[in-house]
Each structure stands twice: as structure tokens, then as C-alpha cells.
From TrEMBL:
The keyword DNA-binding applies. Signal peptide: none annotated. Transmembrane segments: none annotated. InterPro entries: Homeodomain-like_sf (IPR009057), HTH_AraC (IPR018060), RmlC-like_jellyroll (IPR014710), RmlC_Cupin_sf (IPR011051). It comes from Silvania hatchlandensis. Residues 180-278 form the HTH araC/xylS-type domain. Keywords: DNA-binding, Transcription, Transcription regulation. The keyword Transcription regulation applies. One of its GO terms (molecular function) is DNA-binding transcription factor activity. This is Helix-turn-helix domain-containing protein. PANTHER family: ARAC-FAMILY TRANSCRIPTIONAL REGULATOR, HTH-TYPE TRANSCRIPTIONAL ACTIVATOR RHAS. Pfam families: HTH_18 (PF12833).
Length: 280
């Protein structure tokens, strides 16, 4: 497994952070790094697997990846991200208490099962504008004014993320409908049987519009997307728990072990039992 090194990204030993905008992010193999990372999804979607746990990520999501984590991206669809890399062992010039704000972002990782903390379009526009400010600063001497401008813009980005994380909006509010409702529904109910007709009514979309939207967002038909999500969740359980293969099958929405094994092998080219054997 590749470990990304600070010297590949940070401009100098003085820099406590650096920032990149990555468009059309392709699938990336499992890797780690010797720095912390804040990831902001600015466009598109995909699956993010961190320490064996799988999650569907979509425009407006953001999360923290620590120096001890390993992660990768799978089945990306026009995925664009903003990466903020941070070295904890280096001091910022002016941001003395930024760790307290970063802790709020870390906590956001565990809120997804209950709350919707995704960024609005206005939030994203603000963050993208601040990103351009940082990337536009040119100063070979990297003096106090350089770090003052760069860290001021970074503080604006971090503050925007923290403000959104602290709002803790409930995922399924009665007045919520449309595309946001639909994304939340497929992100958090993929293990259950989804009645697509009911979901059309709840999201106030026609069946054709809903199916086209899901295909545009994920790159898959609704049924195929849900199946892939279930298989990735099954892979997570096989790798990170002691549940039996039958328990994994039931937990991930498969009718029986035989059907689960056939589908799993078709997707990953080996059986669930071999998956567990390889991990052990």
C-alpha cells in the first residue's frame, strides 16, 4: 500500500497546510499519508472507503482523514474534490487554535447516519472562491504577509465547514423534497427494500425524472446502484466483523446465502468465503 509523503505536496518545511483542487477524480487505490486531510466534494459522486468502511459521497459532503487512516475511492462519477492537507507537527503562523475547529470537522464524520450536514451551493461557492485566493498567492519568499493571506483564506474555509457541521439538520424533515431528499434516501436506506414509486411521490418527481437523475449522479441505474452499495457494505462486514456469511447476506438485503455468493462472485470475481480467508 502506498503512503503519500509530505514532501510530494507541501511547498516548504514552513508550510503547515497546502490545498489542491482535483477535478474528475478517478478511482484511487487504497493508500495512507503522513499528514491529515480534509476532503470537500465539490462535484460528482463516488464511493469512499476508509479503514474498510464504505460510504457514498456526493456534492457538498466533507470529511476528515487522519494520518492513521487508509482510504480509497471507487466507482467515481465526475467526482471533483478539494483537498486540504495539514501537518499537525508544524505550527501555523497566525492560527493558534485551529485544532479546535478541526475537531468539529472530525466529529462530522460520525453524524451522517442521523444528520444531513452537507454544504449548500452558497457554501461551496464561498469555499471555491477562497480556494482560488490561496492558489493565486505567489510569493517565493513566503513571508509573514504571504502566510497571513493564505491562513486567513484557510480560516474562512474551515469556518464554513464548522458552521455547517454544527447545524446538524435532520436528514428527513417533513418539508424536504426534491433532489436533496432523493440523495439522502438512497444514501441512508440502501440496505432496505426501496419502493421507487413511493420515493417518486415523496421526492415529488416523475419516475422518468428520478431515474434519470440517479443515473446522472451515480453513473448507474437505481437498482444497479443499490446492488453495488449492498455488495460494498457486505465486503466491509466480511473484512471488519466476525459475522457469518449468512448473517452478512441477511444484513445486506440478500434473500439467501446462495444468491449472495453468486452476486458477490460476479462483482468481485471471488466468493465471500475467499474474501474472508484472504483478509485473515
Amino acid at each position: 500500500m502506498k503512503i503519500l509523503q509530505s514532501q510530494e505536496f507541501f511547498l516548504t518545511e514552513q508550510h503547515a497546510f497546502c490545498l489542491f483542487m482535483l477535478g474528475r477524480q478517478n478511482m484511487e487505490e487504497m493508500h495512507g499519508h503522513d499528514f491529515d486531510e480534509i476532503v470537500i466534494v465539490s462535484e460528482g459522486s463516488g464511493f469512499h472507503i476508509i479503514n474498510g468502511s464504505v460510504e457514498f459521497i456526493y456534492k457538498g459532503d466533507f470529511f476528515f482523514v487522519s494520518v492513521n487512516d487508509t482510504h480509497c475511492y471507487l466507482s467515481t462519477n465526475n467526482l471533483s474534490v478539494i483537498n486540504v492537507l495539514i501537518r499537525k507537527d508544524r505550527s501555523f503562523f497566525f492560527l493558534a487554535n485551529i485544532d479546535k475547529l478541526i475537531d468539529i470537522i472530525k466529529q462530522n464524520n460520525s453524524l451522517r447516519c442521523t444528520y444531513d450536514t452537507s454544504l449548500t451551493q452558497d457554501d461551496l461557492d464561498k469555499i471555491i472562491a477562497l480556494t482560488h485566493i490561496i492558489n493565486a498567492i505567489q510569493d517565493d519568499e513566503f513571508d509573514e504577509l504571504y502566510f497571513s493571506a493564505a491562513e486567513t483564506a484557510l480560516l474562512g474555509i474551515i469556518d464554513t465547514l464548522c458552521q455547517r457541521a454544527r447545524k446538524k439538520t435532520l436528514r428527513a424533515q417533513p418539508e424536504e423534497c426534491g433532489r436533496k431528499y432523493l440523495i439522502n434516501a438512497i444514501k441512508h436506506n440502501y440496505l432496505r427494500h426501496i419502493n421507487w414509486e413511493d420515493l417518486c411521490d415523496e421526492s415529488r418527481m416523475t419516475r422518468r425524472t428520478m431515474f434519470r437523475f440517479i443515473k446522472d449522479v451515480t453513473g448507474y441505474t437505481p437498482a444497479r446502484f443499490q446492488l453495488l452499495f449492498r455488495l460494498l457494505k457486505a465486503q466491509e462486514l466480511l473484512r471488519t466483523t466476525d459475522k457469518t456469511i449468512n448473517e452478512v447476506a441477511v444484513n445486506c438485503g440478500f434473500l439467501n446465502t446462495i444468491r449472495f455468493t453468486e452476486t458477490y462472485k460476479k462483482q468481485f470475481c471471488y466468493t465471500p468465503s475467499l474474501e474472508r480467508k484472504l483478509m485473515r
